[in-house]
Write a structure and sequence with these properties.
The structure is a homodimer. Chain A has about 200 residues and is of the alpha+beta class. Helix content of chain A is about 35%, strand content about 15%. At the A-B interface, α1, α2, β1, α5 and β4 of A face α1, α2, β1, α5 and β4 of B.
Chain lengths: ~200, ~200
Amino acid sequence: MTESYFMNLIKKRKSERSYDSGHEVADGCIESMVEAARLAPSASNRQPWHFIAVKDADIRKRICREALGGIVANKFAFEAPVIFILCTETGFSAVKVGEIVKGIPYHLIDAGIAGEHLVLRAAELGMGTCWIGWFNGKKIKKILNIPKGIKVVSLITAGYPKLRNEGNGPGKAKGASVPEISTPEKRDPVKKRKPLNSILHWDKW
Amino acid sequence: MTESYFMNLIKKRKSERSYDSGHEVADGCIESMVEAARLAPSASNRQPWHFIAVKDADIRKRICREALGGIVANKFAFEAPVIFILCTETGFSAVKVGEIVKGIPYHLIDAGIAGEHLVLRAAELGMGTCWIGWFNGKKIKKILNIPKGIKVVSLITAGYPKLRNEGNGPGKAKGASVPEISTPEKRDPVKKRKPLNSILHWDKW
């Protein structure tokens, strides 16, 4: 099997926890990331997702202090120049009925799909991202004025990685809006994963 | 914003509901698709996913008859040469505790992320796929001998699209394992989606 652009892209993506806070993310890049999410498939094409792109430093600080407070592991979020708040509509619909009948909240699967489109587009644009699942949803809703019927599902930080000693990461290509992804990511080894034969079953379990 | 390989790939992907049932999917392609899923991020790197690649015609028929029966919209699944059963481990763990505390079953978001990696890799390989959310999970577990503690989250059909009159789709490139994606997909217009400004909010809702 020939190595592919897409396989390289998903290997390039990693959960980035160190951002260059002074390197702003252009609005056009944010729009392109959400555009990638917009084109994602969803149950019955319901498209339940919303993305709030929080760039404002004061609002980001409030989110980090009030909704991620006390979680040491998430302190890196302070540095990220953008925090995406991924929300879904949870109102009544045929899909909602299906969720109740089948016991599977499809809107969360849809959120995963769309959010990962955003994350992979960010990787293509030379940015790092990190999914954050541990937060205080009620506080975020209050800070951002999110209405009833909308659930905060995940946070995704985004920005250019902080330069490290070796300096060959995408963070160096500050001027380039779409850096090539062919450069080997020396500091970006694929995180430890279970072996393929432990997750792939043929025909039966 | 320059058009990108990844944006083209996600535009190429569509929910395929018409397969060339005689065009088998090579095991190497199936492995590559699950490899893409394997590299996906997950909450606390828990990797809760399992993929059962059902190629056997008799088992596929049983699934379609017994677990998708009566759902007219899913009849296309009979034609797909592979049906992936996407499952997740639902056992006790720190993440599970988080799910209970926060009310968000992260394993479903993780399943969406990993499943979409598989779907996009399939698109890169010239295949069509379709997420199926409406099925009888208990019957599928019985047919496939899926143990306790494992939840069937979604089905994903995969295969080469049936040739249509215009014949320029990826289904034509029968011999090529990795068709180029630069060819415009005339018969693959992006499904209707909400406009960007209705799902992207800046700084606050």
